[in-house]
Amino acid sequence: MMQRSTSQSSASGPGNLLYFLKLLRYARPRRTVRAEHAMHIAPRVALSIDGFLVGGFMLACSPAAMGPVTVFADPGKYEYYSCEQIAAQRTYWTGRELEMKLLMDKADQGTGGTVVNVIAYQCDYVVAREELKVIDATARAKNCDAPRRP
Question: Is the pTM of this model over 0.85?
Answer without folding.
Answer: no
